[in-house]
Amino acid sequence: MSKLRTTLSTSLATLAIGSVSLVGSPTAHAQAPIQNPEPAPASSQTTTRTLSASSSNGSSSKTSGLTFGTRSEAVRSLQAKLTRAGHYVPQTGYFGTMTQQALRDFQASEGITVTGRATARTLSALGGVSGSSSTSTSSERTARSAVTSSVSSTRQAASSAGAQAAVDFAYGAIGTPYVYGGTTAAGYDCSGLTQAAWQAAGVSIPRTSYAQWSGLQSVSTSNLQPGDIVVFYGGSHVGLYVGDGQVIHSSRPGQPVSKVSMSTMPVSGAVRPA
After folding, report:
1. Range 62-154: architecture per CATH
2. Domain boundaries along the sequence of the chain
3. CA-CA distance, 244 to 156, in Å (whole number)?
């Protein structure tokens, strides 16, 4: 009987230990998705490895001080550079999904590894980003500075503060949909865009392309300044000159506001609003 009692006690103890082991298994909980936006600190090896991997994957973005989910003037500068490169993103200063996609598109167009992150090579190709808390190497900073100087030296200066404001507005409108008769950020037609650009500079100009051509001061196409309005197709189309033979225009349904070479369309003349 004594031997039987000993055997039963041993069996019950084994079952109890097994129950505690099952209930307290750290593996069963470590792999569950985290629902709480501010979870309690974890100390398991699984969590430590996950955080380490996340830090490694984001190292390129941390190099530039620009990471997904952050808000800063550096992000706003990045968004402006992407827009001027033809990949429109609102200049909100917040690094969200739109900025990430614009980065991917830019990287693809430049032959850079597509990551959606602000890597040192991406920033160098964009000409640098002001306000970035960069910790990049001396050689990277030198390369970025060289690109920035190149961009600055080739971009033609506007003839007045008003013209510069109009040009800046047009750059910010890149990517906006074409809407026939449109005069707002919801969509522009060609003359709606040029009118809105100069309105942003505090200058009121006629609404239609023909009225702009006939009602504003005519200038020679050989003496264009950023902010001038270039007329195409005998007056049926206009675009805002931004320098270096380029105009920003809203051309047709299905084609958003974009920057193109003047040489892609027959030029009929040019006017200067102010």
Report:
1. Orthogonal Bundle (1.10)
2. 62-154, 161-272
3. 7
- pLDDT, mean of each 10-residue run, the chain (274 residues): 53 46 35 30 34 36 65 85 85 78 91 90 85 42 39 56 90 91 94 96 96 97 96 97 96 94 96 95
**Tokens at residue 207, please?**
């609404």
Q: According to CATH, what is the number of the domain 161-272?
A: 3.90.1720.10
C-alpha dist (Å) from residue 88 to 105, 170, 177, 204, 213: 10, 11, 11, 26, 28
The order of strands in the sheet holding 229-232 is 217-218, 267-272, 229-232, 237-243, 246-249, 258-261
